[in-house]
Amino acid sequence: MHVIKKVFVMTGPASLLLACALLTLALGAAPAVAVEQCRFIQAKPEREACYKRQAAELAAKRKPEPPRESETMQSLEQMRHEDEALNRQLRSICRGC
Length: 97
Hints:
Layout: H1 13-39, H2 44-62, H3 69-93
Helix pairs in contact: 1-2
């Protein structure tokens, strides 16, 4: 008997779509697996510790970046001081001539 094997080769947009779908599933399923592991821990203290670790990791991910306004505010403050000094010099030169 002869066994015939059919091989399907995907080309073009179909293969790209399949690759993107698989990548999305692989990356999207990883965090869900970590969350599900705590649920199946039998010992209550260990399970609660697992949930606390996950909460800490989630809080670290959500931690906002420090505002970058400090550099901007410093430069604006410096410009304001320079402007005030220039205005004082100009007022001392000409008092409404």
